[in-house]
Each structure stands twice: as C-alpha cells, then as structure tokens.
Fold:
Amino acid sequence: RKKAIWQGAAAAAAEVGGVVPESASGDLLDEVANLVESPHVIRGAFDSSFLQLPEDVLVMVMRKHQRYFPVFSSDGKLLPAFIAVANGPVDPEAVAAGNEAVLRARFEDAAFFYREDLKQQLAEFRPKLKGTLFQKDLGTIYDKSVRVEALCPALAAAMGFAAAADTAVAAAALCKADLATYTVTEMTALAGTMGRHYAQVQGLPDDVSTAIFEAVLPRQAGDILPASPAGIVVAVADRLDSLVGLVAAVGAPSATADPYGLRRAAYGMLQALVSANVSLSLRSAVALAAAQQPLPVSQQQQDSVVEFVSRRLEQLLFDSGASAEAGAPSRQVHCCSN
Structure:
C-alpha cells in the first residue's frame, strides 16, 4: 500500500509540475497507509491567495490536520495543490471538491489566527504565559522563561560563547512567547517556528530570530540541531532549567515513568553540545541553574542531575557508535566534563 500511495502521489503531483517532498515518505506516508485498505490518490487545489500565509502554517494544516501530501515545485516553492488518499472506489471529482472545501475552511481559520497574531509584537505575548502553569513548585511558563533568560549570561561564558550572551538573553526572553499566540495555541508543533517568523516580521535582528527558533531544537529524534552560538546557549539553558528544577521538585525519572520528558530533554541538550564541540562542566552548569530555581536544590539533588545526564551521555555515545569509556572522541568527553 505504501508503495502504491507514494507512486500515485508522485504521479499526481507531476501532473501540475510538482513533487511530493521526500520528507513526506516517513511518518505521514506510514499514517496514511494505515488508514486506508484500498488507497485511491486524489489531487486537489486551493486558492493561491493562501500562499501569502507562512509556508510552515500551510504545510502543518495539510500534513497534521488533514493528512494531505503538500506539493512543491522543483525549486522548493509550495504550490497551490495537495494530494489526498481516499479509501476504496470513489468519485474523484466529488472527493476532491469535498477535500478542497475542508482545506479552505482550515486555511481561513489559520489566516484569521495569523492576522490576529500580527496585531501584537511578539514581546506582548510573553506576559500571557503567566496564565500557563509549568509545574506547581516551579511556577508558570513565564517564570521559567525568566529563569532561562537569567541563566544565559553565565552559561554563555561557561560555554565559551560570551560574545553571544546578549543575543542569547534577547532570544531567551522571547523563545516561549509564541506559545501564547493564536497560531501556536492551535498548532503547537509550530512553537519556535512561529516565534522566529514573528520576530523576523517585526524586524528583530536575524541572530535573535534564529536563536528563538533554535531554542526548541531538537524537537524529536532525527531533527536538526541548534547551530548558532546564541541558539545553542538558549537551547541548553531551557533544558537545564527543566532538568534541575524538576529533579528538585519531583525527583529524577524512574525506570518506568518520565512524565516530564526529562530523558528527551537531557539527550537533546547533549546533542546540541556535542554537535557544536562545546566544552562545558556539567557540574558547574547544574549549579548555575540551581541558583535560579524558586526552591532549594540540595547538593544531593544536583549530583542526581549530573548522574542522570551522564547516563544519557553514555547512551548518546553508544548511539553514535563511540565508546562511552576510553574510546570516546575528545569533543564528546569535553562537552560535559565534571
């Protein structure tokens, strides 16, 4: 089924001079193949006026909400077309018309949310985070963003990125703000992406906009990693704050439960450090984050964070084919020296 769907989608896209991106051959193709027994590929279209919306928004609506394959030109521009997959014998024109109507309504909603967001500066959304709880002992998402912002200068210096400290602080102040926007409230997977977009639209410096986006990286396994110094600092600061604060508030994850995703947070933090060849004392970094927490973080709890992250480092080294003991490359040993 997967092969038939993929070949059919590619052929339908070619009819309008387009292609279905290779990225759609993963999770989206798997999901669609599991939803239909007898796939029937349908090509639909949408009004080109919607292309004025950010491409990421349109693609998210098509892929996540409707499970459509977006169609791109050979040079990577989104085309006003999509590929849907129906189940069993259907009337192609009727099914295409129905899907087009549904997508039009979805795009109109997205356009409304986007226009509403643009009525305010990104910074104006940040205070709204005071209404969203992070954890009862650690305060709101706004409180967390304040801690991350405060952590950035010392952490940047410790990572050898002192020159990027001001940019990191500016990005940290805004990196959670898009969580309060209408668009991200409706499409949470666009967190970071929309923050960068709104920062660019509002004329913020490119390095700040980039770091706002990179703060959420990596979002899942196989994702891109932060590359700019400021982006790496904010990404590490955010995850470090979560690790230290939550271990102090609720304890380290057990073998069977990790409700706050701390393993993923630690692994992502380490990926960012290792990929950038950053030398950082984990013990010192944990102490810096502990000093920002709204509750006491004992030395035993700090040691627990160090031990927990060290175990994730061993896993990262194993996954990358390196030895977690004597054979590890120097950059991996240095990235989290105690």
